[in-house]
Fold this sequence. Notes:
The protein is mainly alpha-helical. 86% of the residues lie in helices and 0% in strands. The protein is built from eight helices and no strands. Helix 2 crosses helix 7 and helix 3 crosses helix 6.
Amino acid sequence: xxxxxxxxxxxxxxxxxxxxxxxxxxxxxxxxxxxxxxxxxxxxxxxxxxxxxxxxxxxxxxxxxxxxxxxxxxxxxxxxxxxxxxxxxxxxxxxxxxxxxxxxxxxxxxxxxxxxxxxxxxxxxxxxxxxxxxxxxxxxxxxxxxxxxxxxxxxxxxxxxxxxxxxxxxxxxxxxxxxxxxxxxxxxxxxxxxxxxxx
Length: 199
């Protein structure tokens, strides 16, 4: 129970903290409604497995240069996506359901894999908790991971549902403004990643 509650609490913080993946969930929900936002919200279930396995194996032994490189590469890619979104927002029309779904999911996976935050979390917090819980019994370790991803993904799914439900009420001009704002948020998140990689 303790590990489950710990996973739920950490998952809520990670799920709602501003960042590249949250910005992509917002942008996808604006463009393609709840189904598109849902797919991006579920990206951690696809992209975090190698992160979790590597960090649990290494338990914090990842070199700082590796994390800096991830931060710089991820930041540059996220800034590129933000600038591209700003350019597209000028003439954007609400797309038909399913438009660009493979591209959106691929972008989400790339952004999450290059984002140093999952690596840092699992190297410094998640892996030590998991290993300690596993030593006491596998059930606690599984409960921690289950609780963490339930809330991490669930909070993003909830946000995608809210945005997807309200996007048709804003009109074309409002849609373009919201898309531009979410693209600025995305570019800002990328800039933060670059700065953290440099410092």
